[in-house]
Amino acid sequence: MATNSSDQGPTTLCRVVVTVCAMLATIMQTLDTTIANVALPYIQGGLSTSPDQITWVLTSYIVAAAIMTAPVGWLAGRFGQRNFFVISLLGFTAASMLCGVAESLPQMVIFRLLQGVFGAALVPLSQATMLDLYPPEQRGWAMAIWGMGIMVGPILGPTLGGYLTDAYNWRWVFYINVPFGILAAIGLALFLTESRPRARSRFDWTGFAYLSLGLASLQLVLDRGELKDWFGSTEIVTELVLACLGFYLFLVHMLLAPGSFIKPRMFHDRNFAAGVVLMFLIGAVLLASMALLPPYLQNLANYPVSTAGLIMAPRGVGTMAAMMLAGRLINRVGARLLMLAGVVVLADSMLRMAYWTPDVSTSTIVTTSLIQGFGFGLMFTPLSIIAFATLPIEFRVDGTAFFSLVRNVGSAIGISVSSVLLTQNTQIMHSRIADSVTPFNRMLQTDAAYLLWNVTTPAGLAALNAEVTRQASIVAYSNDFLFLFFLTLPTAILVLFMRPSAPNGGGQAVPAH
User: Fold this and answer.
1) Which of 249, 281, 477, 504 is most buried by its number of CB atoms within 10 A?
2) In the prediction, which pLDDT does 449 show?
3) HEC states along 225-288?
4) Residue 455 counted as domain residue
5) In the chain, how many domains are there?
6) Can you say whether residue 199 is alpha, beta or left, with left for phi > 0 and alpha for psi between -120 and 50 degrees?
């Protein structure tokens, strides 16, 4: 293996190998948040479970990953960053193999829990490794490369999951991780030198228990709320109370207890504190818009599943292009200016979507998706740099772990809120439109309308109700996109709140073999 003197830092070969391995780890973890969604009906049939039970395949992974993201910084400091990274990769890979061979729902849920436990560390450790590996002047490019895995992984997940399920079977959704996980683990073990484990006090089990209670309960509320009719269900109300209690106790414990595993001093850094809120909002808007667009294209615009996936692909292209551009421009124009440009572009795309109708042209959809992806890319890369520019190096792994945590929580809340608003607005608009459907409405007495929607026949009544529901859904989707537009606007204030600062001296590249 190529080496360099310790004062020169890692060799080009080491940087390339570690960068590729970190990217593989990031893509594997982010893909698994969405890749199983398409295969879920096939998994349900293969494991002979009910629709209610099969949702635990998704929920178990998300809950475990959310809970285990918080202590990543402590574990990396206790066992060493490289050792912990390699162990997490191997554990995630083994759990993926076990998911593929599962023969019953209990086995699948247990293996998905393990997959979430080991996978939680992959994204924060890969980001921390990339920040450590490159000097400050090259971090724009490094974060652009790393950000592609974060942003593009969830976009490609459903497409890849659908292809593997159609071409082979649902088990390959999990098997696909095995060769890449092994290669990434070997590469990191050989080319990334272990950082010296930091002496840390006993783990804060009390704070971890409080935070775990809050995260697990909140995730159950968001995942099962629509299924259980939200606050009409005793289960959901109980879980919400437990979530609020857990977060309250954790906040008090973090502020008052001397040995909390999440250090309040991290949030004294203005850039990091504002970055956390920004990452929460970006996660909410990103995943919510991704969740809304496929059913809009398939159910209202009548695109086939494969065509809908292709139409959404330019969004990923726009994201990658903007990330590479931002990585090159960040040292010239500054992170805040790039992020403000991203806010404007993203808000513009959301406002355009709010005025869509199902007969919108394919070229308009592709163009808007490309613009939207470009906006996300302009925001994400500079945010990944400026949020850590002035954060002391001893908080870097803790900070990246907390970033991943708030992004995941924001994503879950964004999807849930947009889904609730869509359902409620559809019902409200259905009721309003139905109020005008009376025997005295002259629009329904014309020849074509009378033939199609004759309320005196069951077929005509059903057709009329279907059309009313369709029109109500169109308005509801428009309102959801408008909601995401307004959710994007406060990010501009947070960007202005951040101060342009030169990176601190804690950005030394980690030594490599």
Assistant:
1) 477
2) 57
3) CCCCCHHHCHHHHHHHHHHHHHHHHHHHHHHHCCCCCCCHHHHHCHHHHHHHHHHHHHHHHHHH
4) no
5) 3
6) beta
